[in-house]
Amino acid sequence: MIEPHNNKNAGTDKPAVDPFDPESFKTPGIMTAEATAVAGTPDVKLLVFDMGHVFVRFNWAEVCKGFYTRSGHTEAEFKQVLAHVATLGYERGKIGTEEFLRELNAKLGTTLSRSEFEALWNNTFEEDPEMAALLTSLQARYPLYLLSNTNEVHYDHLQGSFDVARHFKELILSYQVGLAKPDTAIYQVVLERSGLRADQCVFVDDLAPNIAAASALGMHAIQFVGIDDLKMRLSALGVAVQ
After folding, report:
1. CA 178, chain centre distance (Å)
2. Is-contact 134 224, C-beta < 8 A?
3. How many Cβ atoms sit within 10 Å of the Cβ of residue 75?
4. 218: helix, coil or strand?
5. What value does the mean pLDDT take over residues 22-26?
6. CA 60, CA 78: separation in Å to the nearest integer?
7. Which residues in the chain belong to E strands, given as ranges?
8. At CA 19, angle to CA 13 and CA 20, rounded to 5?
9. What is the distance between the alpha carbons of residues 25 and 208, in angstroms, rounded to a whole number?
């Protein structure tokens, strides 16, 4: 969730996107189910969901404000620090939380404890109750997978506070598998674990580059813009939505 805008994900020539920064993914054009569906009703057997800005809500500006206020830096200075520490690969499991925090403290000139860091890092994160209800409903009829670019502290907080895993048959988390969207390899993990073809999978994500990568692999890809739109697009793919 903290990959820098100008970095490259391993195994792909698509620029990484910071999903915590809305300005970084205002990509012209939205690829939707209509653009990817084949003729007739698709044979949908699996629904794959992103987490942040889909069924988990947060305000990244407030998270950043907590850090730069605590450290005495400006917002611009903090974003420069964040861009640097993002290159360490925390969300791809290249480093652990303690190493990430040491580097963050060094660059900010702070002595944040692990508990202080977690309080700031997890600020504003919560599960969306409407989307949680939709996932519960869908789970009764389809297997659901979670495919998320995330890190240890964010995921542990969300799981401990809201039991987000209760919705899903499989969890494919970037920091655990060492891969991050939109790298094609992380979508291949979905196909390997499910044993399904790409055209039997529906993928829902808020970021256009992640949608484009899934669509290029052959998945039915829906860019999430809201629950009502999602229900409509799922229905268009023959997915029963209550």
Report:
1. 14
2. no
3. 13
4. coil
5. 45
6. 13
7. 46-49, 56-57, 126-127, 144-148, 170-173, 201-205, 220-223
8. 145
9. 7
Could you give the CA distance from residue 194 to residue 191 in angstroms, rounded to a whole number? 5
The string of DSSP codes covering 4-58 is -TT-B-TT--SBP--TT-GGGG--SS---HHHHPPSS-----EEEE--BTTTEE-
Distance in angstroms between the alpha carbons of the first and the last residue of the chain: 31
Contact status, residue 206 vs residue 19, Cβ threshold 8 Å: yes
* pLDDT score recorded for residue 5: 37
Encoding tokens for residue 201? 């999978």
User: Tokens at residue 196, please?
Assistant: 């399904």
Annotated domain spans of the chain: 28-57+127-236, 60-121
Distance CA 197, CA 104 (A): 41
CA distances for 25 relative to 39, 64, 118, 184, 189, angstroms: 30, 18, 26, 18, 24
Predicted model pTM: 0.84
Q: What span, in angstroms and rounded, lies between the C-alpha atoms of 176 and 235?
A: 32
Q: Domain 28-57+127-236 carries which CATH code?
A: 3.40.50.1000
* Calpha distance 184→217 (Å, rounded): 8
pLDDT tens-digit profile of 136-155? 999 999 999 999 999 999 99
